[in-house]
Specification:
This protein is α/β, with parallel strands linked by helices and 121 residues long. The protein has a single domain, classed as TIM Barrel (Alpha-Beta Barrel). It has three helices and five strands, in the order βαβαβββα. The chain has a five-stranded mixed beta sheet with strand order 1-2-3-4-5. Strand 4 and strand 5 form a beta hairpin. The longest helix is centred in the first third of the chain and has 19 residues. The protein is globular.
Length: 121
């Protein structure tokens, strides 16, 4: 599987809720991170962010779209709104309860497509 970058705001520190970065600087940081991951691994990371975090910290802009897979962590019945530039989601984090600990994630596609995605094809 490709690496993932989980971008979320800090709800506990209003002064630094976007990690002390302006929206433009956050987008630059995400792009730099994505470029470095691609340089080191040959693959772009999955960008995981909630609609609220994206609106708050990047003004709903789409970093690295559409070449970067998009993950939508939304503890709701369906994935959150897609950022501009994306036509579909790749992974959806839909819950963290149940008999197994940890987040629950759904891949948007068939098992064959998931295998190709995991191998980087």
């Amino acid at each position: 599987m490709p690496p993932a970058l989980d971008i979320e705001y800090d709800p506990y520190d209003k002064r630094h809720e976007c990690h002390g970065l302006s929206k433009a600087r956050m987008l630059d940081w995400i792009k730099s991170f994505s470029d470095e991951v691609r340089r080191l691994t040959g693959r772009r990371p999955v960008i995981c962010t909630t609609t609220h975090s994206r609106n708050l910290c990047t003004a709903a802009a789409a970093p690295s779209a559409p070449t970067t897979p998009f993950g939508s962590p939304a503890m709701t019945r369906r994935p959150g709104a897609l950022p501009a530039g994306w036509s579909t989601w790749t992974l959806w984090q839909y819950g963290n309860g149940g008999t197994l600990p940890g987040d629950k994630n759904l891949f948007n596609g068939s098992l064959d497509r998931l295998k190709k995605f995991a191998r980087g094809a």
